[in-house]
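(Deposited chain)
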Amino acid sequence: MRLEGKTALVTGGASGFGAGIVRKFLDEGARVAIADIKSEAASEFASGLGDRAIAITVDVSRNDSVSAMAEAVLGRFGHLDILVNNAGITHLPTALEDVSEEDFDRVLAVNAKSVFLTARHFVPGMKQRGAGAILNVASTAGVSPRPRLSWYNCSKGWMITATRTMAVELAPAGIRVNAINPVAGETPLLKSFMGEDTPEIRAKFLSTIPLGRFSTPQDMGNAACFLCSDEAAMITGVAMEVDGGRCI
């Protein structure tokens, strides 16, 4: 029960890595808001998790939607202890000069602007309380980029830098900011990363991971729980690879 009494928000929490983080946080005693653009999926997920889980619809790329989310979360919980910026998208594997402007704008809005927007709406309350933990779900792509995913790679590199600069600025206020860098995993985004899901392409991806398997939502939940718990009270500004050795 490492998160007993804590309140948490997980964006993109209805599936994939986000769902793994939600489940782990609930298992460890937290109350959790599951925020997702897919309202039906979030509601269905929350309905099976007990009265400590609530569902909220949000488009993390829009200020008005993030503002409404913050109002709903703080109205229900009173305050927020843990913010997990997990929502993310990618463009399909494409030569960098051929990615559409629309796709570029959407990737940066969801993966980067969202961190700015959630900070605007939740950091003031954390500062007032003198405590808080923020976790940004970045990627190994921000450390060791794969070709043809250039602008996705850039957005995750941005998240890693944002994590470090937020950590430096917010430390005096008692707020810790860390990141995790997952390697590709069995999530709805896997096919998008690969372009197509075939045994050959899977084998190619797995050949770059020394431990020889994709990451799982449970892997991310375990890492997120540690970094957001009081056990990590002296850890801030870290971008921790959870990647089976991919970045070595």
In short: The beta strands are 7-11, 31-36, 53-57, 82-85, 132-137, 175-182, 239-242. DSSP finds eight helices and seven strands in the chain. The CA atoms of residues 145 and 226 lie 26 Å apart. The mean pLDDT is 96.
